Amino acid sequence: MWRTVPEFPEALSACIRNRHDRATPGFKHRNLLHEARYLLPLSAYWQFDGGGRMDSTTLQTRSPISWQRFACDTERAIIAGLPTCPGVYLILFGDFEKRQQGSSDIAYIGSAANQNGLRGRIRQYFHPGPTQSTNLGMKRRLIAPDCRLRLGFISVSSTAAAKSLESDLLMQFEREHGELPPYNRQRALDLMGRMLVGSKGGR
Questions:
Q1: Which of these, 134, 131, 129, lies nearest to 110 by C-alpha position?
Q2: Which CA distances in Å does 86 have to 51, 70, 83, 122?
Q3: Max alpha carbon distance in the chain (Å)?
Q4: What are the DSSP calls for 41-108, one per residue?
Q5: Are 166 and 184 in contact (CB under 8 A)?
Q6: Which of 74, 174, 60, 54 is nearest to 125 (CA)?
Q7: 95: exposed, middle or buried (Cβ count in 10 Å: 0-12, 13-18, 19+)
Q8: 3-class state of residue 141 by DSSP
Q9: How far apart are CA 149 and CA 169, in angstroms?
């Protein structure tokens, strides 16, 4: 079952904000923490020590995030338990995999900023459109009989908060492991490929 995220007291949010601003000067996170009383600022109070470790274990020691099996036969339970507010979601592999630095079981970090929030974004993976290559690729993984993916999420108060937290977590993953999560890398390659095709077609 999903676990809900408790409110953060304002004093704690201020403390986290000041600490994070000192650690990452210039990063636009202070407004995010100031406005989002329901935000679980995972990245804001994590100060990784360069040990090459960002995975589901370290996430759970820092937050009340929980994980649920992510496959086609769990669609109904997953969608029913997801909120319609913005947020960040994480997809895990079944096992740890070697990265350029260390290892991790994080496969993808994404944000939900559409009208139906996390529920609407995750539903797209189960029911992709014909031109949504990223969602189609995920659907193929979800219908595989040996699918061992898991899903977790963090609810936030606004689209801006979701985008900022997603960006921050991706930067921290890259700093710890020397590369982005595998599915984030694949999405970047897909987007680049579409851009190249579009530029050739416009000539």
A1: 134
A2: 31, 19, 8, 12
A3: 57
A4: -HHHH----SSS--SHHHHHHHS----EE-SGGGHHHHHHH--SS-EEEEEEEEEEEE-SSSEEEEEE
A5: no
A6: 74
A7: exposed
A8: helix
A9: 19
Distance (Å, whole) CA 13 – CA 11: 5
**Token representation of residue 57:** 């274990």
Residue 36, both tokens: 């989002």
**Token match 């000192």: residue?**
22
Contact (Cβ atoms closer than 8 angstroms) between residue 143 and residue 136: no
- The residue type of 60 is Q
Q: What is the mean pLDDT of each run of 10 residues along the chain (203 residues)?
A: 41 38 36 36 46 80 84 96 95 95 95 92 95 91 96 93 91 92 76 51 55
Integer angstrom CA distances of residue 181 from 23, 87, 100, 155: 23, 18, 11, 21
Domains and CATH numbers, the chain: 50-198 (3.40.1440.10)
